[in-house]
């Protein structure tokens, strides 16, 4: 995403690949819980493999052999168009990563991401890419939200231990410990810039944070999404809740028969639906100056003015 003059935020950010380091000093000491941070929803869905088995929904797995079914899942499951690196360079700092083990994989601990279909690239390869980027941009704090863990039921202890240990060894001293209330300055002073949220019920080692609450409208209708998120923001601010939370601008397909209204449109797909709705959702977001969100996640996070709009909310901090 290229930055145009009209999109430069008042705080002086000109390079979205390093926008956190360019924020004014007044924002360096506030908790990251109070900073507006752009995120991507289903961050790895650009990498879905049309030849993979169907991961979800369960009701469609028995139709994997029907060639049009994987095609429909790809058309309506790909919520992002750009790679993780391009998302990071564009300014995305929160990543929604849904982890799974493919059935019948010869490697007992090899993991993938998924959204309807499994990804082509495995989890370890992507985490290494993120780690390399974090090393090149030490002042940019990245939040990785790992969740779902589809297919872990048969051997949960081995798979979770493998993934947790891999994360610890890979990111090492860059990991922000969960006992602290992180600010940009505290992360910079300690040489940390990776926060790992791990959505699994169990004991958490110090390098893992618990689930980050994700609020979303659960609808394909922009007005309904805006209404639900507005209510959520008011409640959050009234309770003065501490900790990270995500305000999801993403559209959500129905889980009942009404899904056919969308997926059977021959010349339509999820990307086009998002492109038509995103300007309206961003217009609503620009108005959230008093009930300010924390992390804001979106489909097609590198498109339109999403990232600049989120970052600009920090002008009211």
From TrEMBL:
Pfam families: PI-PLC-X. One of its GO terms (molecular function) is phosphoric diester hydrolase activity. InterPro entries: PI-PLC_domain (IPR051057), PLC-like_Pdiesterase_TIM-brl (IPR017946), PLCXD1/2/3 (IPR042158), PLipase_C_PInositol-sp_X_dom (IPR000909). SMART domains: PLCXc. Residues 29-199 form the Phosphatidylinositol-specific phospholipase C X domain. Transmembrane segments: none annotated. Coiled coil: none annotated. It comes from the Eukaryota. One of its GO terms (biological process) is lipid metabolic process. CDD domains: PI-PLCXD1c (cd08616). This is PI-PLC X domain-containing protein 1-like isoform X1. It comes from Betta splendens.
